[in-house]
Write a structure and sequence with these properties.
The radius of gyration is 21 Å and the shape is globular. The strands form 2 sheets. It has a 5-stranded parallel beta sheet with strand order 2-3-4-5-6. Strands 1-8-7 form a 3-stranded parallel beta sheet. It folds into 2 domains: about 230 residues, Phosphoenolpyruvate-binding domains (TIM Barrel, Alpha-Beta Barrel); about 50 residues, no CATH class. The model has no long low-confidence stretch (mean pLDDT about 90). The protein is about 45% helix and about 10% strand. Strand 3, helix 5 and strand 4 form a beta-alpha-beta unit. It has 13 helices and 8 strands. Helix 5 packs parallel to helix 6 and helix 7 packs parallel to helix 8.
């Protein structure tokens, strides 16, 4: 899958909500729900693969490896993946982009934090030199053009709105398809970014990691240039809550009868069990069947 589908979503006059997925089953569920793009976060991979927080335990190789398992379930729906800081200098960022492209990822977001980064909304963030950050983006857009590149800046938390706008402008000039001003949650501040960078699509993050969920409407976001809204861990947290309730029910009553669950038939359909049965009948030419 090339970047064209994601670039189309960034270009159209519409807000697209992009939920997080982390394996083939959740990817298939997102497609069945009608989503037009999905997201793979470093936090989700670190938690589900390693049981670790998003503090640098996973690398590009592991993100790409996970993507190869879930891309087939997406049936062409584009996957936007977390590329952290690019895992090093511009050369490393290009290597990351090439690995993601080979895995079937359609686009990535690259941030300007000092590596190792501070996860999500934790205090103590630092950002790298703006020139180095722009160089990573330029290298990616020139050498891996099949990927959409979304430039995330974490400058707001440490340097404020003015520096955020400067960095978004520099990253757009370096070739980024969109900018991602992490931490900016007020509509008037998003409007200021949009006014300074007319025509540059904006991506925002609606994550439970934030201390407060902003009260955005799609109409408000559309008016200030936002085109993608990421929901990186909402489904993961919902799944963990459901699993927790189920384990508690089994421990207390000996069964999960009181817990709402997906019917077994729906689950087997989701993972393609019927198609996987009787492989000889599917693949052996009819005249050779016995």
């Amino acid at each position: 899958m090339t970047a064209s589908a994601l670039r189309t979503l960034l270009a159209i006059d519409r807000v697209t909500h992009v939920p997080g997925v982390w394996d083939p089953v959740t990817a298939a569920l997102a497609v069945a729900a009608g989503h037009r793009a999905v997201h793979l976060s470093g936090a989700a991979v670190s938690a589900t693969m390693l049981g670790r927080p998003d503090l640098g335990f996973v690398h590009a190789t592991q993100i790409a490896d996970r993507a190869t398992t879930l891309v087939p379930a997406l049936q062409g729906v584009p996957l936007l993946a977390d590329a952290d800081t690019g895992y090093g200098n511009p050369v490393h960022a290009v290597w990351t982009g090439l690995a993601y492209s080979r895995a079937g990822i359609s686009g990535l977001h690259l941030e300007d934090q000092v590596s190792p980064k501070r996860c999500g909304h934790l205090a103590g963030k630092e950002v790298i030199d703006i020139g180095l950050a722009a160089a990573k983006i330029k290298a990616l857009t020139e050498q891996v053009p099949e990927l959409a590149v979304i430039a995330r800046t974490d400058a707001y938390a440490v340097k404020g709105l003015a520096e955020t706008i400067v960095r978004c402008g520099a990253y757009a000039e370096a070739g980024a398809d969109a900018v991602f001003p992490e931490g900016v949650s007020e509509i008037d501040e998003l409007a200021a970014i949009h006014a300074a960078l007319p025509g540059v699509p904006i991506v925002v993050n609606l994550s439970e990691a934030a201390p407060n969920q902003p009260a955005w409407t799609d109409a408000d976001l559309l008016a200030v240039g936002v085109r993608l809204v990421l929901h990186p861990v909402a489904a993961l947290l919902a799944a963990m809550r459901a699993a927790s309730i189920t384990y508690r029910a089994i421990g207390e009553s000996g069964n999960a009868d009181a817990v709402e669950r997906m019917p077994w038939a729906a689950f087997t359909a989701l993972v393609g069990q019927d198609d996987a049965l009787d492989l000889d009948a599917r693949y052996v030419p009819g005249r050779l069947q016995t």
